[in-house]
Q: What sequence folds into this?
């Protein structure tokens, strides 16, 4: 697989719906330690709604698929995480407007857009114990893979490993945003649920590219 075509992106969204449903209880458990305990319900519903409308998304333009996915998230799950993900998808869509396929380099651009959109909306930075702490290392891994002209399989294998490690590393951080910030030092030791969502998004790309649409 040298590039991601429009149908691949749609299939990845369906893969993400399954992954979020499978991890719904786990995400709720992580969220309950520092927040409302409903994050798993939010993200599983969000990707379920996108998947349910997959046939109505643009036929050729990947950027438009991502933007419209963001619109669906904003409409159907208007929560903090729903809004952040919506902003990320919409910004990624803007950067990839008109693209009919994605190479490793453009896959890196997709995650760059997600980070830009989420950071602009949520004002978070690296080290703030948020979704950025898993997406950022994944993006950097994709950039390195593109520079080295690695295959998409190799690129996303490395990106997922970095995203997973990034999410785990949030256990060492103190929360600075949302309800979790009220816990101050007591938030240290808990893995951030948002960063876990970020890692699961990268996992969806990795599994689809390396194992097929199973």
A:
């Amino acid at each position: 697989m040298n590039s991601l075509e429009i149908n691949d992106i749609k299939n990845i969204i369906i893969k993400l719906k399954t992954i979020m449903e499978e991890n719904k209880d786990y995400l709720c458990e992580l969220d309950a330690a520092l927040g409302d305990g409903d994050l798993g319900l939010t993200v599983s519903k969000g990707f379920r709604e996108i998947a349910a409308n997959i046939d109505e998304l643009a036929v050729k333009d990947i950027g438009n698929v991502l933007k419209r996915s963001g619109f669906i998230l904003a409409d159907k799950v208007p929560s903090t995480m729903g809004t952040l993900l919506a902003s990320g998808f919409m910004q990624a869509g803007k950067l990839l407007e008109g693209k009919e396929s994605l190479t490793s380099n453009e896959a890196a651009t997709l995650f760059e857009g997600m980070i830009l959109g989420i950071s602009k909306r949520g004002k978070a930075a690296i080290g703030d114990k948020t979704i950025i702490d898993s997406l950022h290392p994944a993006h950097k891994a994709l950039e390195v893979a593109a520079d080295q002209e690695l295959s998409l399989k190799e690129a996303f294998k490395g990106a997922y490993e970095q995203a997973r490690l990034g999410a785990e590393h949030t256990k060492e951080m103190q929360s600075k945003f949302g309800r979790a910030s009220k816990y101050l030092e007591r938030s240290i030791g808990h893995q951030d649920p948002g960063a876990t969502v970020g890692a699961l998004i990268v996992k969806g790309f990795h599994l689809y590219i390396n194992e097929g649409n199973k």
The chain has a mean pLDDT of 92.
